[in-house]
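Assemble and predict.
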Amino acid sequence: MKRYRISYFFGQAFKGMWRNRMMTLASVTVLLSCLIVMGCFAMLVINIERNLDSLGDLNEIVAFVDSEEPYIEGAKAPLAPALTAPGKTFLGWSTDPDATSPEFRPGDTYSVSAKDAVAGVITMYAVWQGGITHEGYTVRYHALGVNLEGTLPEDSETLAPGTSLLLAPAVKARFDNREFVGWSTDPNASLHSDGGSDTAAETGDETTGETSEPTAPVGDGAPIYAPGDEYTVSADDARGGVITFYAIWEEKPSFTSYTLVYDTLGVEASGSLTDAEVRLNKIESQLQGLDNIAENGIVFVSREETLQAEKDKLKDYPSLFAYLEEGDNPYPDTFQITYKDNSGVDALKLQLDNIDGIYKTRCRADLARNIESLKHGIILVFSWFMAILFVVSIFVIINTVKLAVVHRSKEITIMRYVGATKWFIAFPFELEGIIIGLISGVAAFFIQWYMYVYVQSMIMNQIELISILPFAALRPLVLVGCLLIGVLTGLIGSMISIRKYLKA
Amino acid sequence: MIEFKDVKKVYPNGTEALGGIDLKIEDGEFVFIVGVSGAGKSTLTKLLTREEKITSGSLTVNGFDLSRMPERKVPYYRRRIGVVFQDFRLLPDMTVYENVAFAMQIVGEPKRVIKRRVPSILSIVGLQDKASCFPDQLAGGEQQRVALARALANNPATIIADEPTGNIDPRLSLEIMNLLIKIHRKNKTVIVVTHEKQLVDYFQQRVVTIDGGNIVSDRVGGMFGETV
């Protein structure tokens, strides 16, 4: 009896499906599409979750440093540590090249002051025990921070005091119409405003009792020599063995930020001798002092290394770097910091942000958090999508099954009169819905399998950053999910469509 | 036994179809229920087949209390009564044999029982030769006989015939009525709802006359025309 009934039910169900085969096909297609969309969303979320986990586990924070940012007045600049040179004892640093005792000890902090700067540059001179004896003087030219057309005149040879030489010819500013006035050993020298003329005009205010006669116009304090004037070397004009002739401009360029350079006064010394290096070392030592740092957890990646790495990574797209001129580098120096404890990452970030020279931090945990919120968004959209698609699928199945029901409504009425139970009447139709759901589920499963493997191989080839679960790991979930949702949709749809006809 | 006790039926639209009916039909009786159109005959039939529920009063059929029967028990009640309709209600894509067997299938009769019983039922209604015909190959009277055979399929105690001769050739009506009498002789309660007075007069059975939702006469014999 039982076997007979089962074949009866299946027979009725398949008969119904065959009668409305176009509708059946349509509902299978719609349900199939819904299942595929659902499955894609689910697999996307699962893979995001997986990547999040691996991202969060990296315990890495990247600190971006700018070691070349100019100082402003009053800023604290770390000074270079002690130098070592054979036969010389390093005492400290001074802004005066002829100092015999140091103004600053090595490693001190120097408060940036505009009065120490010449044309925006502050020079720290090494102070050596016993000083440096100069056998002669070099005459050097200095543009005072103005960009020149052509180059500055070269340094002279070492000259003994009393030697005469002709000063370099006039230089010309490159970008603006700044008027060149003359050369002076004092960078602050300027023309009297009442001089009234650019040409050589004696003002009579002679402050230097030198042997040489400055024929150039004389400003406040120091004489201004005209280009080509004769100059007699004087020890009084020299600083650190160099006599610097500054280009005096009618309108002086002004500076509000300053860079720091070191000068060993001609002594061959070892040690960090650029401000950037000093600053990086300072930052690194501050980093070493932090708590939550893993062993060997601080790695410095220079901007050159970053640029090279990026070039290597994107070697198929050389045009991306074509705009860079020689020496240009859009990347900053970075410290890659590995920390021990994930829970202290916010405190660590705060500490990093407070270190001078670190202007930005990027944390994997931050990235993970961003993706996490993205994931929440996706899940929200996914839920809505799923709900809508579910409803759509149910409607399509309701219609398909309803066609079969209407076709057999007379039969259903007769069945009711001769005493058929509700489930006996309804079951073939429910079976029809279930079979539609099953077919859709199985088809959706195989289509997703194919799609997943395809997309996976595509992504694996292109983006190394992302790791994707193999389909085998998702297979049971996708299969069960597709079948379950398919069958459930089919069942619910057919139950709704038959309900009206079941009233006794 | 069928017992109506002060049965009222008011449709949701407010129409009072039955206004308090008291009627008792013993087992094995043959009863005509007559009346003009709109008198309440078909409402009475619908109450007996539990298509409609009574509004008040009580109705008991073969021990089933129809006023308090839950929905899920209705199919089991219907298996105990056989119903014949004016429009036959046969399944057009099934043969005569299948139409009768169908009623047995849905109550879960085993195949061998069906195989044995269907021919014997068909022989009662005289259609054993037409077992493999489809309904549209049969005349109206023959179709109604198939319907009768189906009503008998599950061996019910009561047969309810709602205008069984309404759609068939008057010359064949007698044939159907004779069959119902034949069934009645097999110790079944038969209720025939009709408005064909010649038939009622001819058979001289108990006649219940309904008018305006009330029983206006209940007597044995003909005189259908004289009472209404």
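Residues 193-216 of chain A have pLDDT under 50 and may be disordered.
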